[in-house]
Amino acid sequence: MLLIIAFLSCFLIFFLYPEERTEVISSLEGVTLTSLNGQQFQLTGQFTEKPILFVFWSTTCGSCIEEIPFISKLHEMLKDKITIIGIHPNFSIKKVQKFIRKYKPSIPYMIAIDSQDSLTNTYKVNVLPRTVLVDRKGKILYDHLGYSPDKEKEVTDAINSIKFF
Fold it and tell me: pTM of this prediction?
């Protein structure tokens, strides 16, 4: 009797338990972000020619702000190989603009607002800062959570070790 109950339980769990839904982007084309001037744009054309390093951050996150000089250095080192876009989850554009105007030195890479939370939800970004390197189709090549100055070399080496093409 116990074997029958165990068998039926396994059967019910295997066939009736809903699978966890995982978000997948089949292409970065169609993903819409908002620029700091309020214009919406899609990740098409120049943004899908090479891999993209999405840097999820917030103006209210101390570690995110501390990470900006490191990401700026990465941008200078790798701008011919990858595109870096700082992604601020859905937030007031005016507050992000104010932060960017006050931040010195100026940030050399693009900053955008994920106003529809499409990337934030797709890559399940719950903790900031988070860097996600994706290929042209949106497949994750490298994923790093958090920031610590002593991890900069490790992150740089990991990104440099990836064969992009």
Answer: 0.81
